[in-house]
Structures are given as C-alpha cells and as structure tokens.
Amino acid sequence: MMLQIRLLLADSELQDNSRVELDQVREPRLTVPGGGLYAVIQASNGSFVWESPSIATLNTNSTQIKTITGNIPAASPGQQQFYQTDNGEFVTAFSIVFEKDNPAANNQSPVLSEIFTYLLIDSGEDYRQQLGTFRNTLVIGMGIGIAVFIALQLLLLKWLFEPLRSMVRELDEVQRGERSAFIEKYPRELSLLTSQLNHFIDNENRQRERYRNTLSDLAHSLKTPLAALRSALSLDNSQRKYVRSNMEQIERMEQIVAHQLRRTTQNATTGIGQRSEIVVLIRRVVDALQKVYREKQVELEMTMPETCFLPWPEDDCFELLGNLLDNAFKYCDRRVSLTLDPGQSQGFASIIIENDGHQIDEAQTQRILQRGVRLDESAEGQGIGLAIVGALLEQYQGKLTFSKPTNGGNRLELKIPLKLSIKQ
Amino acid sequence: MRALIIEDDDLLRDTLGAILTSAGYACDLAADGIDGLYCATEYPIDLAVVDLGLPGKNGIELIEAVRTQGLDFPILILTARNDWQDKVKGLEAGADDYLTKPFNNEELLARLNALLRRSKGYASPVIKLGDIVLDSAAQTVSVNQQPLSVTAYEYRLLACLMLNAGKVMSKTVLTDHIYEEEADRDSNVIEVFIGRLRKKLADLDQPDCIETLRGQGYRFCVPLE
Predict the structure, then answer these.
(1) Torsion sign (Cα): A389, A391, A392, A398
(2) Whether pLDDT at A59 is above 60
(3) With contacts defined as CB-CB under 8 Å, which chain B residues touch A287?
(4) Residue among B22, B29, B35, B21 nearest B4 (CA)
(5) What span, in angstroms and rounded, lies between the C-alpha atoms of A390 and A366?
C-alpha cells in the first residue's frame, strides 16, 4: 500500500498553494468505481483535497471515508501509519509537508508549508478472498496429506502384520487337517516360531506312530501265543478240569491285553495336521463288511455327499467306522442305514447309523462309552467296539448319542468337529 | 478238502493244523509268506488261513499275489492287530473273511466251512443230494436219515465229490484234495476208498451215485428231482 502512496506522491502537485492535484492515477483500481482501493488526500484542517475516482461507490459518499479516516490519529510528517478498521478495511496513511510558493519571501522569511496526509484505503475484499482461498487450500491440502499419511500407515501395518495373518491362516489349516506343517516363508522373527511348531507337530506325529506301532507289535507278540494256547487247550480233552482252569487263565490274560490296548487308544495323542476323506473310507469299510456278512445279505442304504473331510488320521477313521459299522451289520436283522452330513456351516460333521436289530440296553451302552470302564466289567462283542469308539470321540472332541427309534432298531448319532481346537 | 495254513508262530500253526485235520481237512503248513505263496500256487488248495503279520512277505502281499495269479480259493485272514485298516486292506486284497486272535476253534471252523460252501455254491452247511445228506459243520453223512459211518479219508473223498457234484474229478485231483503234501500216497488208494463208499451206500439201499469214467476219473451224479 505504501508503494501506491508513493505513486500518488510522485504524481501530486500543489496547486494554488491550497490543493493537490494529480496528473494521473497510475493504479487502475483507484480509477475503477468499486474497485476496492480508495485514496484521499487530506489537508491539515481535515478536509479532503483530493479523492480517487473509485470512491464514488464506496457506500456512495465520502462520509464513510470521513468515518474511516476520522478514527486515525494524527501522525508526524514522514511517518507511515497502518491500521485495520473494525469493518476490516486496511488504511495506510502517510503525511508529507508541501512547501507553498511565497513570492515575497526572502532569506529571513519563514518557509510556508502545509501538511497533507495521503490515505490509502483497501476494502480488504481481495485480501479476505485470498485468505479464504488460502485457508481452503490449506485445509484441503492438509486433509489430503493426512488421508494419504493414514493410508500409508494402514498399508504399512497391513504389510507388517501380513506374516502374522498368514501364520494364523496356516494354523487354522493345520487344525482342520488340511496341512501338516507351516510351509510359507516368514520373516526371521517368526520363522523360528514356525520351525519350532513344525518340529513339535512332526514329533507328536512320530511319537504317536511309534506308540501305536510298539503297542500293536506287543499285542501281536502276546495275542498269537495266547491264541495258540487257547486252541491247543481246546483240542486237549484229556483232563477237563485242568483244561477249564487254564482256559480261564488264558481268557483273563486276553482281557488284560485287550483292556490295556483300549487304554492306550484313550491315551494316545491326536494326529495333528492330518485329515481323511471319510466318504471313501466308509465305502471301503462297507465293501469289506458286505464281503464278511454276505450270507446275511444286509440291505444297506447310504446317504452321503461327494466328499467330506475330517481332521483325523486315516487309521483312527478306520477304527471309528469299522467298529461302528461292524456292530451295525452284526446286530441287524436285515437293514442298515448310514447318513453323513458334512455340516460345513455348523462346524461339525454328523454321522447317523441305524439298524433294525434287537434294541440294545441304552444304560449299558452309556456305561461302556464312559471313560475308564474296565473290559472285564463290559459286555463282550458290541461293548468292546463301542468302548474304542467312545475313546476316539473323546480324543477328537466328538460326541455320540444313542437312541432307540420308536419303530424299532438302534440309532447312533456322532457329531465330529471339523476343526480341532486347542484344549484348555 | 485241502487247506493251507500260513502262520509264523510254530505252536499256533501246528495247532491250527490239528484243528483242521480233525475237522476233515488235508492240511499243508507254511511258516512264512514265501513258502506260503509257493504252496498256494503249486498245490490244489481249496481254502487258506493266512496270518497277516508274516515274515518274508506279509499276509496282504501274499493274498494280492495269489489273486493276481488267478487263484480264487477262499482265504480267511488271522490278525492279532485289531486295526480295522489292516482288516479292510486284507479284504480288499482278496481275502474273504477275517478272524481276530485269539479266537474260538468252533468259530474258526464255522467260518471256514461257510467260506468253502460259498465257494462251491452252497449256501447251507448241509448238502443234500438225493437221499444223501452231508453235514459239513457236524462232519456227518446220512442216507435216508440213517447215519453212514465213514473214515476220515472216506469223508474227505465223499465231501470232495459232493461239493463238486456233476464234475469229473480225476484220481490225481482227488488225491491232491484229500491228502496233504507230505502224506505217503498209494496210487490205488482212491479206488479203494471209492469201492468202500459204494459198498457202504449199497448197505443202506442207496443206488450207486458215484460214476466211474474210464481214463478220466469219477463223478458224483446229481439225482434228477
């Protein structure tokens, strides 16, 4: 604004020792009515000796100028003053001394002069507009910047946590039996953990295998001599009392071996990271049983999906299905039915096996299914198979319910989780 | 009928041999899978009892090899392991039934009789052809409900002829089916047994139902209903 005043000063000339006239007004805004920039030259007595053409539309008259300029305190010549009014106008004032012409003046005469004050008033609209634009730009810019920053942070976090998410995904697949180890590459900080987990899974599975093989071999080495003794004694009719006593001892030994084998099934570790296609296994077991029971000509009805996977190793699946279906075939009259529901949405598969045989005692069945029932307290035949089934279901967090349909026969329903959870 | 027993435990193998012999079978014994496969392929076996846990060649491999060679005699597997996976694999390999050790002798014989009958097309343990009734479970023969007293070898011979009724059985085949491999065989023994059977049947007023085909062998004639 001071530059504008200097331009006015440059074009100013004192006329008739009383008024200031300007040859030209260089600033175009001072010539445009309503341009937002106004200038007046005020004499020392307060009167306006010059007004810029733009004042014509400044709320129409000079009164407002007087209101504006009247609030400005007087200043010494050469002193620049800058004010902002309550209405937001910017005022720059600069006082200057003009020397008047005095023809009679001599060297001893005082110099006649008058102080004129140049006032430049800017309505401030441009300023405010620019300020508003600046503020908007700043807000928008900062908003965009913050949004970009947050987005980058989120991306960074997503990238940083991706290995953990991947690990959780793989762990879920291990629990479902869909994979047997963590195979993806992880950062150094996590790779130690996953390699330890893989080592643990491998150790558990190997130990389980060793355990079962050792006991199976033990059973074989015990049961074969027992079978030989039993058969040999059965052939020997020479001393009945002696034979009967030894047969009782042999039966007792057989029971102990079978009981210990069943206990090992209860205490065996769960196969981790393994799964079996149970539809295929059911068909294999059924085909085998149809062969064994061909004279019975069992009518079998099966309702199964195309595929269904359980998070069990194959040998445990065989034990479950073999014992259940063998009982169903053995104790049916003519009909056996099997229904398999994969239950993906419920999180557990359901197997229902029914037969039309003589209804067995539910209380006895429940007692056999309870953990820790001794073999010599349980019934032979169906009891042994159900006890193994009960132990397996407990191991793999499944449930079995037994019922007697009103139209006869027996019904067993199994619910088996599709994913093994970590036991507390 | 001729049975093959493949079991690595000496006592059990000998005991099984005694059980089946007393039940009227001619028994061949093998202690491992390799010997067992040889016996199965070289001798005219009517049925086999195979232990799954054999040294050399395990039971399942042996059964697969037997079936691959087109031998279809019934096989019953013995297993000490309660694993259903082993049982199913054995049945899939070609076995016809299983029995878990330890077992009852009676159950073993009943299952073997059932397998043998089924393989010959008989659904019942009792074979009735005309007035002659042979009960394979009780190992008795009767004619018009009168018991016919026969020796062990005569029973085996008559059972072999009746189970293959209508088929010509040569002397060699009959000899192979009623004698175990190590038996001391007389070349005329079949003729002697046939002669005795005919006499015993005639004593009970049963017409001669064993036909001699010169140069070929013998055939049990199926009576016309």
Answers:
(1) positive
(2) no
(3) 91-92
(4) B29
(5) 9
Q: What does the buried/exposed string (b/e) look like for A105-137 if buried means 16 or more CB atoms within 10 Å of the residue's CB?
A: eeeeeeeebbbbbbbbbbbbeeeeeeeeeeeee
Amino acid at A206: R
Q: Do B12 and A227 make contact, defined as CB atoms within 8 angstroms?
A: yes
Name the pTM for this structure: 0.64
Name which of B84, B89, B116 to mutate to probe chain A: the one with the most chain A Cβ atoms within 10 A of its Cβ: B84
Q: Which residue has the tokens 């004698």?
A: B179
Residue of B nearest to A247 (CA): B104
Q: Are B45 and B16 in contact (CB under 8 A)?
A: no
**Are residues A319 and B84, on separate chains, in Cβ contact within 8 Å?**
yes
Q: Are A224 and B88 in contact (CB < 8 Å)? A: no
Q: Which of A231, A259, A293, A319 to mutate to test the interface with B (most CBs of B within 10 A)?
A: A231
A352 torsion bin: left (phi>0), alpha (psi -120 to 50), beta (else): beta
Mean pLDDT for chain A? 80
Contact B81 A295 (CB under 8 A): no
B224/A contact by beta carbon, under 8 A: no
Residue A272 DSSP class: P
Contact B83 A291 (CB under 8 A): no
- Nearest by CB to A318, which of B83, B103, B105? B83
Cα-based distances in Å from A230 to A154, A166, A378, A380, B109: 75, 58, 22, 17, 15
In three-state secondary structure terms, A226 is helix
When CB atoms are compared, the residue of A219, A229, A318 closest to B85 is A318
The CA R_g of chain A, rounded to the nearest whole Å, is: 53
Q: What pLDDT was estimated at residue A374?
A: 43
Residues of chain A positioned with their CB less than 8 A from the CB of B11: 225, 228-229, 232
Distance between CA atoms of B90 and A318, rounded to whole angstroms? Answer: 13
Taking contacts as CB-CB distances below 8 angstroms, the residues of chain B near A292 are 91, 96-98
Q: Which residues of A touch B117 (CB under 8 A)?
A: none
Query: Tens digits of per-residue pLDDT, A170-226?
Result: 888 888 888 888 887 888 888 888 888 888 888 888 877 777 777 776 776 677 777
Q: Which residues contact B106 (CB under 8 A, 6 or more apart)?
A: none
| Percentage of chain A exceeding pLDDT 90 | 18
Residue pLDDT, tens place only, B92-106: 999 999 998 888 888
Nearest residue in chain A measured CA to CA from B105: A231
Q: Mean pLDDT check: name the lowest of A104-108, A112-116, A129-133, A167-171.
A: A104-108
CB–CB contact A291 B97 (8 Å): yes
Smallest Cβ–Cβ distance between B85 and the set A227, A230, A315 belongs to A315
At a CB cut-off of 8 Å and minimum separation 6, what does B132 contact? B141, B142, B143, B148, B162, B201, B206, B209
Both structure tokens of A97: 């001394």
Q: Are B76 and B96 in contact (CB under 8 A)?
A: yes
At residue A403, the pLDDT reads 84
- Give the nearest partner residue to B101 out of A223, A319, A388, using CB atoms: A223
The type of residue at A281 is L
Q: What is the pLDDT of residue B62?
A: 93
CA B136 centroid distance within chain: 10
Q: How many Å apart are CA A182 and CA B98, to the nearest integer?
A: 41
Written as one letter, the residue type at A262 is R
Residues of chain B with pLDDT under 70: 81-82, 123, 181-187, 223-225
